[in-house]
Amino acid sequence: MLYAELFARSLRACGRRELSTAVEALIERAFGLSRTRFWIEKNRPVRDAAGLRRFRRSLRRLLAGEPLAYILKEKEFFGERLAVSPAVLVPRPETELLVEKALALLGGAEAEVLDIGSGSGAIAILLALRSPAAVTALERSRPALAVLRRNIARFGLQERVRATAGDLFPRRCRRFRMIVANPPYLSRRDWQRAPRGVRLHEPREALLAGPRGTEVLQRIIGRAPEWLAPKGWLLLEIGHGQRRAVRGFLKAAGLREIECVKDYAGIERVIIAQKNDLS
Prior knowledge:
Structural class: alpha/beta
Number of domains: 2
CATH architecture of the largest domain: 3-Layer(aba) Sandwich
Mean pLDDT: 93
CATH superfamily of the largest domain: Vaccinia Virus protein VP39
Distance between the termini: 70 Å
Number of strands: 11
CATH class of the largest domain: Alpha Beta
CATH topology of the largest domain: Rossmann fold
Oligomer: single chain
Helix content: 40-55%
Strand order of the largest sheet: 5-4-3-6-9-11-10
Strand content: 15-25%
């Protein structure tokens, strides 16, 4: 069997053309080929029996709906490759919008940033890589914390990103120039409607907030003022149709909404708010 035949057969088994990149990635990983090398070798026979076994195991996982990132144990985010596992969410393009806005607001200045529910550390690590910010990355899940620390070490950011165990806020009160979070924001109905692969494989506690979906957002916003420095920024990723509720939480907390960024599907996805300069 040729590599090209293996690719074509696997793609037919998937039944979805959009999985062609995933199948290609599995072949590359199983046989230790670069993407360029794969296409050079495509008309040559497959003679690596161990590689073929690795590929078939991975393909079965993909056909069962497991996210490709968990199979490959990494995911590209903002141009960097992060380690992932089923203990953390797979970083998504929408969250890159939050990182872009955070970097623009930081403007290259040194600042203390708090990343709530850091997971793999996608937000914290990119802020530290692309700015002089020092980031406290807070995560309550021990398995997720292990992935977070692995990524911090992968990029040599032990002096710039501090992984801390905790739920929403650190134990000791301090002031941050910026607080960022991609918290759970799915309602029970949203969770039931989520793709099967998400419900079966991604951590439920990182996605499901409660009956309304805004419960965790409300908790973060309610306490954010005591942790923000004067004129400090709060950036939150939110769910579809949640802006109105979030506006109410911000008003009750005395925070001013500055901007709401829409994602690539036109959904209001990132809320930017600011604390006044007197408190």
